[in-house]
Design a protein that fits this description.
five-stranded mixed sheet
Length: 350
């Protein structure tokens, strides 16, 4: 019996409110142009993201008012619980399981604070067993989809036959800020959306797509590249360096290093499935991985349709790749705060 973990099912979910990129630009202009002289210069960011539309847990009017921690947290709890239930039910149903069959729940989320954690809050409505193992993970940011899959796969492998549910859920829009007039906040407003993805994993008799190996790389002295600051208003986004430049310079060697630890090389990978941070990041990934421009097509489609949803985004890309037929070996990659790279090698038996 093969005791590596397999993907039994994958599901994605988005909240109810759709925002067109032009609509968000207009709202940002109305709010910021008079107060922030650099806004007109930075407004071109909205057109250059490659995003057509995104989704949020609140109607656009909600984001136009000043919000503090209590309101943001209330919106997070309501929105996250609803999205968690929807995506978990889809993934469990597609695995031909009931919620009572889930043995472990791994929850990845970095855009809100909940104690008790999200899976505990929805356990009753979802129908989880009282002895379910809960593994909530905070702080992985955009790397969370891949790192979460890596952690969930190891938990499944440690107990063959058990069902592990991974839920990666982020409500990035709730961190929108118009009290702090910074380039980082304009970049965030132009890029981020809300969404969730869920995967059921099982070792032993799981299915055709298996987690072959995993790897991580943490760069020293890079804490300032990406993260949150915390202040009385809420989370504040940190983007201190240009991420595309860092990716173009450092990501290729990091992938080769991680692959070598897996006893693989770049030539063994039939397809790269990457977290698309934005169009400039996608172009930098293609350069770093020596791919022809345009190769990361699913990534560009997902960014266009949903924006950057942080952790779950790469699983939306994986869903598209699976729908169109996975090759024998693919490599999921993502970058996130730390600054860190995470990758998962998938082996698919057609």
């Amino acid at each position: 019996m093969n005791h590596t973990a397999a993907l039994v099912s994958l599901a994605t979910s988005i909240p109810p409110y759709q925002f067109h990129q032009k609509q968000i630009l207009q709202a940002a202009h109305d709010l910021l142009a008079d107060r922030y002289p650099q806004f007109e210069t930075l407004s071109s960011l909205f057109a250059n993201t490659g995003i057509r539309h995104r989704y949020g847990v609140k109607p656009i009017e909600w984001y136009l008012e000043r919000r503090g921690w209590p309101e943001r947290t209330q919106a997070f709890l309501e929105g996250a619980e609803s999205l968690f239930l929807d995506v978990a039910r889809k993934a469990i149903g597609r695995a031909d399981l009931a919620a009572g069959d889930i043995d472990t729940v791994v929850t990845v989320c970095s855009t809100g604070i909940a104690t008790p954690t999200l899976e505990a809050r929805v356990a009753g409505k979802l129908g989880l067993r009282s002895d379910v193992s809960r593994v909530p993970i905070f702080g992985l940011g955009c790397a969370g989809g891949v790192s979460g899959l890596s952690i969930a796969s190891r938990l499944a492998q440690a107990r063959p036959g058990t069902n592990v549910l991974l839920v990666a859920l982020e409500l990035c829009t709730l961190a929108v800020r118009h009290d702090e007039l910074t380039k980082a906040n304009i970049v965030a407003a132009s890029l981020f959306g809300d969404g969730a993805a869920a995967v059921v994993l099982r070792a032993g008799d799981g299915g055709a797509t298996r987690i072959e190996a995993t790897g991580e790389k943490l760069w020293p002295d890079t804490l300032d590249i990406m993260g949150w600051s915390v202040d009385p208003e809420g989370f504040g986004v940190i983007f201190q360096r240009t991420i595309p430049d860092f990716v173009a310079e450092h990501f290729g060697p990091a992938v080769i290093e991680m692959l070598s630890r897996m006893k693989l090389s770049a030539g063994d990978i039939d397809r790269f499935i990457c977290h698309p941070g934005g169009t400039k990041v996608i172009a930098a990934l293609e350069r770093a991985l020596s791919l022809d421009q345009g190769t990361l097509d699913h990534e560009r489609e997902v960014i266009a349709d949903y924006g950057n949803m942080s952790a779950p985004t790469v699983l939306f890309v994986l869903e598209r790749a699976m729908e169109r037929g996975l090759p024998a070996r693919s490599l999921l990659t993502a970058l996130g705060p730390g600054f860190t790279a995470s990758c998962v090698a998938l082996r698919h038996a057609a």
